[in-house]
Structure formats: C-alpha cells, structure tokens
Amino acid sequence: MTTEQLKNFLILCETMNFRKAAEKTYIAQPALSRQIQNLEEEIGAKLFDRSKRQIVLTESGDYFKREISKVLEQITQIAQRTNEIDKGDAGTITIGHASSAMHSIIPSLLQNLNQGNPNLKVSLLEGSNQFIFDRLESNEADFGFVPNALVPSNFDAVEIYRENYFLILPQEHHLDENSFRDLGDCRNEDWILHPQEGYGYMERILQIINGFGYLPNIVHRSPNTSSVLRMVSAGLGITMMGKSTLKGFDLNLKTIELKDLDHKLDMKLVFKKSRDLELNNYFSVIIENLEYLGTKIP
C-alpha cells in the first residue's frame, strides 16, 4: 500500500461517494475504485459495504480509518521534523530550565536566537532539576539547563558556566561581610531551602553545609526560588544560592559572596543520548549562540 492509496481512502471516507472522491483526488473513478479494491485485498478485509445505494464503512473499515489517520499525521510530523533537523535553524525546540538559568543565560540566548535564527521557535519549561529530567525523559523537552545536576547515564551534558554561591540573609541580620568568617557562623540559624530531589542541586548545598560540621535547621522548603527569597526577606530564615539567581529581585535582602568555597555552582546543558542525531544541529546552534555571547564552553 502507498501513502497515496491511504490518503485517497480517507477522502473517500469523507465523501462516501466514489464520483466526488475521484474529483477531489483528480483521478478517474474506475482507477480510484481499483485502488480501494487493491487496498482491501492487501489488508484482507472489506473496508466498505457496497450493497446499499450509498457506500458505508464496515466495522473494520471504521477501525482502519481511525488508525490510518493517526499514521498519516505521524508521517507528516516526521517529515516536518526531519526537514527541521536537516536545517537546524528552523522548527521548534523546548528548553527546560532552572530559575537561576532564567536570571543568567536564557534571556540573552533567546534574544540572540531571535536575531540569528528567526525561524527557530523556542518554548520554555521552568522547574526543578527533577522536573526538567522528567520532561526530557518523556521527550516533552529537548534540552535542559540544570544547576549542580547529578546527570543520569543516558544523558549527555556540557558545562556552560561556574559561579560562586551567595549566602542570602534578611537585611537586618547581624552577619555582614565584615563579621562573617565562614558557614560555621550559621550553625544556629534557621534555613529556608529547596526540596531534596536526588538530582544534585540541593544535595550539593547540604554537602557544603555539612562540611562545616552541622546539619542545617531547615524550617521551610519551597521549589520556587522567588518564594524562598521572599521568606528570607520576611525574616523567616537564611538561604544559599548561586550568584545569578539574585538577578532581577529587588527585595529586603543582604548577601555575602562565598568566594573562599572550593565548591562552585555549575550550570549544565543536558539532553538525551538517544536523541543525539535528532538534536545535534539544534545543539550546535545553541552552543554557537552561547559562545557568541561570551560563555566559555569547556
């Protein structure tokens, strides 16, 4: 069977009339009739009941119509995606990202893509590392920008940048850059942190704090960065985040850059290894644009 046969079959299903279907397909009515007969012989089932004045779909024909409609739609999507992959500068990609990426590289990247690759449409999904990896795993997202990620073995990852952590305090907190020595000074503080999810971001922060000989007293958790910062601003506790996370917030906060920490926050670009051929051109476009913006890609 051919796609032409299948498309003509669907047109006949719409018209339920061989003459009208022949006019729509621009072929002679006897030729269309032979096409449908050949299709039925190949399948081994009658698709139409021709015993009445007007043809009607049989039960098997109705099933075949529903399934073939899906198949032809998939073929159309596959052909379109193949064309987009070949060009690399057109089509649609979905990028998952942590909130810190939105405060660092995402806006500039999108602006540059809009200028240099205007036919490439980008959709965004914001969430935690776990949220992003889940969307990548289900192919709801194509790429992800994730901080401090423990990358599963079925993903490829490229480090995009590294930055210092900041200790973030309410404005009226007694600690400041002059009195602060190290995170050991925060042993008796209440902490507001993101949830642990098993993908590295919060696990790394807890590892750093534990290195100063104590477990933080976590009084509140929120997956939302804005919520964490607003709770800190309200005097409910302190927190620790990457430097870029603070961009765009005008809150009642005090910050201390943790320059002496050996640990840094690293932002990675990740995607599924199984989609390497499909996404390679898009990956190259993203990396080229990041390098143009001055991001040092290892």
Q: What is shown here, in short?
A:
By secondary structure, this protein is an alpha/beta fold.
Bin the helical content: 40-55%
Sheet with most strands: strand arrangement:
4-3-5-12-6
CATH level-3 fold name of the largest domain = D-Maltodextrin-Binding Protein, domain 2
Number of domains: 3
Instruction: Report the mean per-residue pLDDT as an integer.
Output: 91
The share of residues in extended strands comes to 15-25%
Keywords: DNA-binding, Transcription, Transcription regulation
Organism: Flagellimonas meridianipacifica
Domain HTH lysR-type: 1-58
GO molecular function, one term: DNA binding
How does this structure look, described?
There is one protein chain. With 298 residues, the protein is α/β, with parallel strands linked by helices. It folds into 3 domains: 3-86, Arc Repressor Mutant, subunit A (Orthogonal Bundle); 88-162 and 266-292, D-Maltodextrin-Binding Protein, domain 2; 165-263, Periplasmic binding protein-like II (D-Maltodextrin-Binding Protein, domain 2, 3-Layer(aba) Sandwich), CATH 3.40.190. The protein has helices spanning 3-15, 18-25, 29-43, 59-87, 99-102, 106-116, 129-137, 201-210, 225-233, 276-292; strands at 48-49, 56-57, 91-97, 120-126, 143-147, 155-163, 165-170, 190-193, 217-221, 239-242, 253-257, 265-272. It has a 5-stranded mixed sheet, with helices on both faces. A hairpin with a 6-residue loop joins strand 1 (48-49) and strand 2 (56-57). Helix 1 packs across helix 2, helix 1 crosses helix 4 and helix 4 (59-87) runs parallel beside helix 10 (276-292). It is elongated, with a radius of gyration of 29 Å. The mean pLDDT is 91. Pfam families: HTH_1, LysR_substrate. This is DNA-binding transcriptional LysR family regulator. InterPro entries: LysR_HTH_N, LysR_subst-bd, WH-like_DNA-bd_sf, WH_DNA-bd_sf. GO terms for molecular function: DNA binding; DNA-binding transcription factor activity.
